[in-house]
């Protein structure tokens, strides 16, 4: 199985260990993983700001880098959803369509494609799961609490069996952290207040770590935690899973 590793800009620039953990985890699971060195931004920031018509070159470059793989895997729900919904090409639409159908967020890929059922290992900490909006509502990685339906969480499924890891049940499981990409720049005060509210829920449950599938959301929360001099730490789910034995 040939997998193209798609790493978001902020992970590449600020949290390279998340990209490395994702790469190593996929290799441990038997995937043939390649990191295209010429990959750049997928165009999501421009699209979110109302300039999707200027993302053509981003699409062209993405298709050039990720054509030919069985799957494209990304440790980010928001970037995955952008590619899945917005990658198009006037000249190479069949290739764009193939990528749209085979691009997966990391935990989605582990549960739905690789069918990972059991995680064996230890992470002896109390952990709160932040389910990002794009992953939950766009990719359906977890059930929305306002729906009268059976609850599920793909990232939660991967964490629940880990020895010593206490996955707490938050009061508001799917509340937005306030990051929202360019929203945190244009509406800074609202964004920060939403982040503070999200952290209070984790503090109420006395977590030691906040984890999730989107480092962008965790980066936002990490900044607030540091300014509040909180002992709570953030960690991407790939960094937890990569330390473990996966079956």
Automatic annotation (TrEMBL):
Cysteine-rich domain segment(s): 3-84, 127-221
InterPro entries per UniProt: Cys_rich_dom
TM stretches of this protein: none
Pfam annotation, one family: CCG
Any one GO molecular function term: oxidoreductase activity
CC terms in the record's Gene Ontology section: cytosol
Protein name: (Fe-S)-binding protein
Species the sequence originates in: Flavobacterium agrisoli
